[in-house]
Model the fold of this input.
Amino acid sequence: MTININDINIKIKLLSSDTILAQATVILFDEWEEHGWKVLKSNKIHQTYNEEVWIQAPSFKNGAVWKEIIFINNSQLFIEVQNKIYDAFKYARDKKEALSNQDNQESEINEKEVDKIYEALNP
Done:
C-alpha cells in the first residue's frame, strides 16, 4: 500500500506556550490518528518556512536523547507531512490573528460610538 499526501488530513490546536506553538494530529484515511506532533519554536530559521519553527514527530525521551515514536520511511512523504502540518498551523494562526484584529477594530468602533453618544447627551 502506498500512502500519498492526499490520504492525510491535519488537525491543529494552537497553544499559548513559550516553546510549543501548536499540537498537530495527523489523520490517515480518516481512520488512523497520530497524536503528539508538535510545532515548536526554534533558535534557527527554517529554510523552507522562513521563520523560527520546527516540526517534531511524536517522540519520547530516552535518557538524554529524544526518540521518535512515529517514523515515515519515505523521506519525501515525511517532508510533505511536515509541510502540511506547517500550512495548517499557519492557516490557524493567521485566522486567529485576523479574528483578533477584527475584534480590536470592533471595540475601537464601539468606543468611538460611545464617545459620540456621551458628547450628544452632555453638550
Q: What stands out?
A: The mean pLDDT is 87. The chain has one domain: 7-121.
